[in-house]
């Protein structure tokens, strides 16, 4: 077969055939809709268009981010751009708009979910400018394509320019970080001369450290040499420099788009359909949280400063940004007798996958079975395919796991829903056939992969998204799985993070790689204690990130060059315990959520609030309760976006 089981994708240029077929089928459906069939048939046909196009776009996006073959990546990029251009045609099609307006005006002929689909489809078309004059509509289409290409450039720059730092001698870098480095050499600027009078040809050996996000995190945590940490911090937070200009253009284009659509800002334009429906609601939420967390965060900041002063060999005692990760890790280890390398020995990747299987079996009575991958279906030898099975309901869907880091793979952790589920008839349902869970966990090709506990938390987070897709049973693909209000979408994923911290769950799968002993309860207690040591600092950081995203999109962009640097610096001074930015750095140029979540990053914090409430109400006493799992599935997960989030939350 071909990639993901699609026959066309036996070869890279099969993506173009998939696009041709998708456009051909969609045009047939547009012609059918133009005949103005019944309201229910209009909604069904438009949902099929959405399903047809999204399957190809989502397949292309997964391929672009993970496939090691450049030809496949290039063809997937072309396919994605072609279909996004075609989407502009669909969004500009007056036949579709008039048809869905007609359907919405006849609610008695539609089911509750169909009425909701009709309303959302109309809003989506209006967000594309269908109701505008021809010249404004043309400009909206131009801006949407421009924004798409700029966002793609922003993310590609993050991969191609991760930054690097050269360290001499190599001994300044801890041995445990050598897998992140490449050897380099230089000729000393001075050297002894032999009896011949010629200089020695001895060369100094050093290392080049790439400063992509996960590598930089390790460097800052484990490197004792403060100068190395500083150099790495500045290098990592100054790259990619080109994204300063790209971001300025993204913000400018988004603001122009929002003004054409009659909104004061891009935040106002994009928040209309969220639970927080206006920029002021988001701003108030973030400012209230900033004030709430500030006293505790300042207290934690002082403790780190004092610890550095007591444990530093130098007279300079100011806490620097490159010090935080190093000293907080040391403080956690000492306070809770926590050895992170020992901790990782309980979290081999196969055992963590076993933990996911235990969760679905305990909560939902489901089983994951590993399936053989058909030749041509997979994109890398590390990919594992699982089938989700219910003893009475049968197969519910399929999950690809692509969890290990490798050269050329985008450094993301994400969930891709390739095919969403939808009702085909009264007796048949199209499964959410393909869901992919992608992470970047470091590990050697020859040996086993052991996860830091933060990676375990990430795995469980993304698994929450995957279950949302696999367990939804909506009538329409438009609402399948995570196709929900943006500030509700992260609720299941945040809920499943709790399972990565609960001893009652961890003891069932976290087992030592050699002895097979379950993780000791005291070790989990130490983990939990270490987590809460700097909880306010971490929460303040997330509030700061959300404020950056919000403020950049909630006002008119400045005409000054690289104006985002000053905005970020001002927010850091006002909303964090850090008072002075590091000259020459621009951390936000690698903050990819500015492209994917424009004006919506606050959603993570919103969802954390919902997840905390659900955990306390339903799972805290018994995290593996089948009755609580059944309620979660039947009252929330299975509905995708087919019900209002507030209705589902109150029901649960």
TrEMBL record:
GO terms for cellular component: mitochondrion. It comes from the Eukaryota. Keywords: Hydrolase, Metal-binding, Metalloprotease, Mitochondrion, Protease, Transit peptide, Zinc. Binds 1 zinc ion. InterPro entries: M3A_MIP, MetalloPept_cat_dom_sf, Neurolysin/TOP_dom2, Pept_M3A_M3B, Pept_M3A_M3B_dom. GO terms for biological process: peptide metabolic process; proteolysis. Residues 224-651 form the Peptidase M3A/M3B catalytic domain. Its main location: mitochondrion. Gene3D superfamilies: Collagenase (Catalytic Domain), Neurolysin, domain 3. One of its GO terms (molecular function) is metalloendopeptidase activity. SUPFAM superfamilies: Metalloproteases ('zincins'), catalytic domain (SSF55486). It is found in: Mitochondrion. Its cofactor is Zn(2+). CDD domains: M3A_MIP. Belongs to the peptidase M3 family. This is Peptidase M3A/M3B catalytic domain-containing protein. It comes from Genlisea aurea.
């Amino acid at each position: 077969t071909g990639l993901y089981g699609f026959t066309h994708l036996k070869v890279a240029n099969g993506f173009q055939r998939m696009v041709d077929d998708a456009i051909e089928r969609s045009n047939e459906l547009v012609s059918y809709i133009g005949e103005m069939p019944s309201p229910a048939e209009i909604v069904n046909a438009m949902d099929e268009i959405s399903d047809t196009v999204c399957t190809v776009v989502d397949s292309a996006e997964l391929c672009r981010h993970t496939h090691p073959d450049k030809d496949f990546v290039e063809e997937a990029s072309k396919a994605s751009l072609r279909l996004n251009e075609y989407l502009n045609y669909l969004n500009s099609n007056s036949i579709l708009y008039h048809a869905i307006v007609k359907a919405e005006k006849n609610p008695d002929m539609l089911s509750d979910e169909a009425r909701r689909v009709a309303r959302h489809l109309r809003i989506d078309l209006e967000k594309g400018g269908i109701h505008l004059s021809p010249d404004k509509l043309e400009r909206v289409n131009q801006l949407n394509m421009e924004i798409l290409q700029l966002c793609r450039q922003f993310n590609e720059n993050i991969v191609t320019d991760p930054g690097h730092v050269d360290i001499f001698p190599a001994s300044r870098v801890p041995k445990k970080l050598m897998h992140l480095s490449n050897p380099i050499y230089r000729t000393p600027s001075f050297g002894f001369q032999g009896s011949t009078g010629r200089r020695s040809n001895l060369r100094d050996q050093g290392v080049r450290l790439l400063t992509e996000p996960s590598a930089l995190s390790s460097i800052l945590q484990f490197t004792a040499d403060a100068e190395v940490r500083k150099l790495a911090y500045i290098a990592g937070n100054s790259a990619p420099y080109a994204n300063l200009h790209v971001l300025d253009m993204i913000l400018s284009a988004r603001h122009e788009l929002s003004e054409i659509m009659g909104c004061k800002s891009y935040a106002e334009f994009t928040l209309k359909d969220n639970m927080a429906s206006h920029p002021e609601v988001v701003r108030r939420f973030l400012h209230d949280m900033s004030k709430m967390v500030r006293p505790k965060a300042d207290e934690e900041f002082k403790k780190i400063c004092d610890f550095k002063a007591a444990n530093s060999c130098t007279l300079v005692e100011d806490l620097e940004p490159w010090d935080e990760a190093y000293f907080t890790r040391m403080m956690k280890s000492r306070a809770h007798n926590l050895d992170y390398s020992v901790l990782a020995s309980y979290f081999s990747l196969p055992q963590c996958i076993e933990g996911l299987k235990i969760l679905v079996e305990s909560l939902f009575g489901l089983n994951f079975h590993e399936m053989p991958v058909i030749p041509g279906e997979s994109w890398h030898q590390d990919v594992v395919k699982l089938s989700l099975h219910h003893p009475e309901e049968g197969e519910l869907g399929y999950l690809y796991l692509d969890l290990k880091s490798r050269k050329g793979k985008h450094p993301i952790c994400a969930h891709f829903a390739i095919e969403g589920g939808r009702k085909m008839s009264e007796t048949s349902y199209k499964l959410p056939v393909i869901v992919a869970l992608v992470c970047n966990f470091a590990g050697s090709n020859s040996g086993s992969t052991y996860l830091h506990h933060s990676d375990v938390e990430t795995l469980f987070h993304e698994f929450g998204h995957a279950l949302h897709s696999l367990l939804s049973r909506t009538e329409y693909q438009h609402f399948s799985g995570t196709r929900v209000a943006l500030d509700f979408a992260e609720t299941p994923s945040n809920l499943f993070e709790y399972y990565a911290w609960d001893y009652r769950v961890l003891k069932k799968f976290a087992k030592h790689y050699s002895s097979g002993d379950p993780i000791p309860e005291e070790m989990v207690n130490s983990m939990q204690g270490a987590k809460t040591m700097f909880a306010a600092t971490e929460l303040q950081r997330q509030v700061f990130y959300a404020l950056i995203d919000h403020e950049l999109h909630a006002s008119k962009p400045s005409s000054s060059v690289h104006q985002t640097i000053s905005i970020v610096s001002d927010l850091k001074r006002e909303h964090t315990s850090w008072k002075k930015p590091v000259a020459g750095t621009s951390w936000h140029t690698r903050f990819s959520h500015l492209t994917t979540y424009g004006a919506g990053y606050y959603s993570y914090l919103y969802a954390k609030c919902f997840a905390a409430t659900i955990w306390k109400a339903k799972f805290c006493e018994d995290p593996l309760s089948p009755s609580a799992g059944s309620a979660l599935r039947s009252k929330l997960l299975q509905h995708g976006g087919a019900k209002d989030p507030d209705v589902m939350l109150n029901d649960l």
